[in-house]
Amino acid sequence: MPQTSFQAFSEKLASVIDGQSGADRFIEAVSALYPCEAAFAVLNRPNASPVYLADSYADLSSKAAVQRYVTSTFEINPVHNAIRGGLGGGVYRMADLAPDNWSATTADVIADDAEEISFRTPGWPQGLREVSVLVELEDGMVGEISLARAAASKGIPDADLDALRSVLPLIRSAFLRLASNSINNLPLDQTKSRSLASFGNDILSPREAEIIQMILKGHSSLSISLSLDIALPTVKSHRRNAYAKLGISTQQQLFHAYLKSREPEGEK
What we know:
α1 runs antiparallel to α2, α1 runs parallel beside α7 and α8 packs across α10. It is built from eleven helices and seven strands. It folds into two domains: about 190 residues, Transcription factor LuxR-like, autoinducer-binding domain (Beta-Lactamase), CATH 3.30.450.80; about 70 residues, Orthogonal Bundle (Arc Repressor Mutant, subunit A). β4 and β5 form a beta hairpin. The termini are far apart. By secondary structure, the chain is of the alpha+beta class.
């Protein structure tokens, strides 16, 4: 690790930890240690939407995509679901956290086989490889900073990930400082979130709802069969019945119906 990079990291991060600077400087600090095209930082909360802290995406469409992520598409994102599944603090390649057959195609989530998880949120820059730095905080929260590099670069060297792992305690201290300010200032309507677990519960059987949730998280029928220890034809039958009850016929329509269900009544 170049000495100049670590010095820039430590100076910028120190200003965040002592309260002189905010989340924008935090992203600058981590980006000095791990050079990248863009980054965003959020606080993941149990049973609630992420709290946006800051991002360094350059254009308005990309920034809008980050906001789309924290308000809707986060629940079908591999990193967020891994956190909800109990993933602890560490440094992770996003591609390593994706389900076996990740696929999403909607007006809100665009299929793109060039992407490492085969989809992207509209407006999100194409051809990026993301690394997520996660730290466990108080009250079940997990701080996350996502760092994106162009796919044209030669992968993500283990040495770069090791550099981030070596400073996780310092990153956690910065997140604790940012979290104490951000959570206290949240508007009341942002303290709770509709849950993926509630989607379709009023018309689907428990097994159908479970399978629909796994589809939304990117699992294939085979993966669902293996995970739930039920026969593949049974999975397909439950899926077909659930689609009929929801008034849809394709996976694209399923994702659209789910995202539509999250919108306030006046916006549907």
